[in-house]
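quick one, 573 residues, struct below
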Amino acid sequence: MKHLSADIQKLPRHFLPEDFHVTTWETLQPYYEALQQRPITHVKDLEQWLKDISELEAVISEDAAWRQIRMTCDTTDKSLEEAFAYFCMEIQPKLQPYADALNKKLLESPFTKELDQELYHTYLRSVRKQVKLFREENIPLQAELSVMAQQYGMVAGKMTISINGNEYTLQQAAKFLESSDRNLREEVFSKTAARRLQDRDTLDKLYTDLVLKRDQVARNAGFANYRDYKFEELGRFDYTKEDCFQFHDAVKAHIVPLLQQLLEKQQQKLQLDTLRPWDTDAEPVGVEPLSPFHSGEELVTKAIATFDELGPFFGNCLRVMKQMGRLDLESRKGKAPGGYNCPLAETGVPFIFMNAAGQMKDLITMVHEGGHAVHSFLSHDLALSAFKEYPMEIAEVASMSMELFTMDHWHIFFDDADQLRRARLQQLERAINIFPWIATIDKFQHWVYEHPQHTVEERTAKWNEIMSEFSPAIVDWKGFEAYRSSFWQKQLHLFEVPFYYIEYGIAQLGAIAMWKQYKENKQQALDNYVAALSAGATKTLPALYKTAGIRFDFSPAYVKELADFVKEQIDLL
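---
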């Protein structure tokens, strides 16, 4: 830990000119052709060729990332949307056949077997997968899907409501749902529901179009459905759909009853006869909602101090990001919803985007995305860009572990002992209640893509069935049935990154195991954390988890073991 430095450098260029910028396909094509035509007569030639491909990939991926970042930061600027769409429609489709040809050249080279097989194992496995999935006829479909998926952010970014004469984004308005004023909570919830329902049909149509086009991509590649195709594309080599189904069952058996207990406590705390959807995050009369910060500037200052206490390297990562302008934290009209950490492959210093409104959940988002950022810093020096494309199941361990590790240092946000206790309690309760939502979204996706020709009515009915399966009946939605029936539309992953959600469940188990290890031996846990993240994608998932000192396991028994541990810690608070 003491030898780590956040002072990472932009990768030097050897293949591309230092002043080269991605503008059109025509400027990129000669470099792909040079790589395709270059003779490889020795394993050293092959290693250099791979480094040159990596350099080209880093430059292109960083350019694409900036186009998306700028567009999500301001969804009202048509020029930013057009720049992103241009990349998706005019550049990405034209480079894909060349990328496929380079993949085949690598696999066909007699020198590939002379590469360090331990180091290159996961990379070569991924290349074989890409070759298997590539279909020329899918190129225009995938380009269209990239542009279509971003339409969700355009629609959601325009959603605002008026409270007490002031206009708020839905992210900003959510802070009122923690208020002790029940009438205010109901007003905010009702207005949020009404505003989302205004775009229900638009988002229903968008999702239907996405599902049908994704199904066509899968069938073109020889798969029975998009779920099976996507599992392969995501590189899920270490678990199957049956493991996901087992996870759903485990959550239903071992987590939903715990959530029921937590909601019963909430009802008792608020002294209510009936628990309504606007009551689940509320504080009782006389208790103010937690307010860990009041501005984006205060949030980042306190986050840096928190990370500093955990370890100077962690704080320096955020400090460098602040210095380089790689943070856009506060919610505002016209900004896309959600939050993310975007790795930037060439410069190495990532970008954090979020919609902070002064709430406790914003503190969690900040340390969560900060964990992702640390992962980007730790993996930057790996030799190839592909070595840094780590699986999401370990990426989310990086972020979710940071949520739990930093709890010891939240006194920086809360100088009142009771507020600090409440903040930690909320986080531990969230560590439990996140599982049913993950299972709901994941199970819903399995059904959607197994039945791609479904009607909107069939989808709505299935959503209600699945949501009821993982939602304790204690919450009374009377009068808001239509909103509940379209509640899935608030989850941007369904639109933008299909099937990317079970990772949160797998990784939450990993993060709880990391925190358990941290409570037993803080320094060993942090050393293991750094070692696992530094390996990037050069190890399999089970090996990365083993490096972190934990098990890659989401069986019912393991779910119960870790849930019981969290419940014990909740009871202590």
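The chain has a mean pLDDT of 95.
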